[in-house]
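Supplementary Note 2. Why include the ligand at all?

Several targets in our set were suspected to adopt different conformations when bound, so apo predictions alone were not considered sufficient. For every target with a known small-molecule partner we therefore ran a joint prediction. The input for pyridoxal-5'-phosphate is given below.
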Amino acid sequence: MADWRNPPRLFIPGPVKVNSDVLQQLARPTLGHRGKEYAQLHAETTDMLKKILFTRQNVFLFTSSGSGGWEASIRNCVAPDEVVLCTCCGAFSEKWADVAKSCGRNVELLKAEWGQPTLPEMIDEKLATGKFAAITLIHNETSTGLMNPVDQISRMMKEKYPDVLVFVDSVSGMVGLPLKFDELGWDIVVASVQKAFAIPPGLAVVAVSNRALEKSKSVPGRGYYFDFQEFAKKAEQNQTPTTPSIPHIMALHYQCTKILKEGMENVWKRHREMGDFVRGWAKEKFELFCEEKYASNTLTTIKNTRGINVAEVIKAVQQKHNTLFGNGYGKLKELTFRIAHMGDITLDEVEELIGWIDEEIK
Ligand SMILES: Cc1ncc(COP(=O)(O)O)c(C=O)c1O
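The joint prediction is reproduced in token form.
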């Protein structure tokens, strides 16, 4: 029987497994959020995040999951009379478009089939109309395991549409995939800590360009909880506008220290190696859901070409090994399954899991 006190080790694409040394950070004595100790924690954490994201601009910490970052991007940086182009290639990029609509903004969709990338030429064709103030783009679509070609898209945006703001969801990409915020010319990038930061859910990391911050000054109806202007004002004192989840920020400080010590190139390489391993197995036993050049290095979505009963295999692995991997997302349930290889998950652990899946499908 399920028991939350003895949960399975998580290889679902978020939340992912959290190591016990990280969990211990959440049990530290708490701090007053207007005191000097918190300001030190805040400053050190955001400084490290700036190094991790290769940015000299702004990094805000939201006490929310990643979806708060979606809402913030729209409410702060798209005026009610402007139009935002929401590029969609799976469940999460589609949800961001829904969020933009629910914020009352004018939204136009640019849809690719699930599993297909959003290509620069598709965006170019839309933006050529001149009617868009901003685009939303997903770095790593967790529902399909697809990495969009964000380097090419960003280059095209800088060359042809330097005035259009670029908002990026890297919820399941940040840390695991190369991301140099200033060089890419992005205006906002959003991540949740329960993915490649390998921390329990409850905090979002949001980088904001100076020009996006400037733009937000003129946007009415920014709301209260995610107002960039309030975050910027409080950042000057190394604080947040409201009481943040300090335990999460302690855990984030711990993880950022470890990540920087390892070095970003090494962190990205480690994720690529896990991706290569799972892709190798998937191609031998099944098929990749996405074309290989777009297949993600933080999770793999595998096409169920053998017609296995995915739910049964997941259940068997959980019962025997107290370990959980993911079924396909939404309409891809049973047609695909997903294995996360991000954060503090190791190649050895992934190999062990694959061995257990092999046992069930042979
Ligand atoms: C790519 C992507 N974007 C956004 C979200 C929503 O993030 P959260 O659940 O942290 O609000 C998720 C959640 O899995 C995701 O995978």
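The CA atoms of residues 102 and 250 lie 33 Å apart. The pocket of pyridoxal-5'-phosphate is lined by residues 14, 65-67, 92, 138, 142, 169, 171-172, 192 (CB under 6 Å). Comparable summaries for the other entries are listed in the accompanying table.
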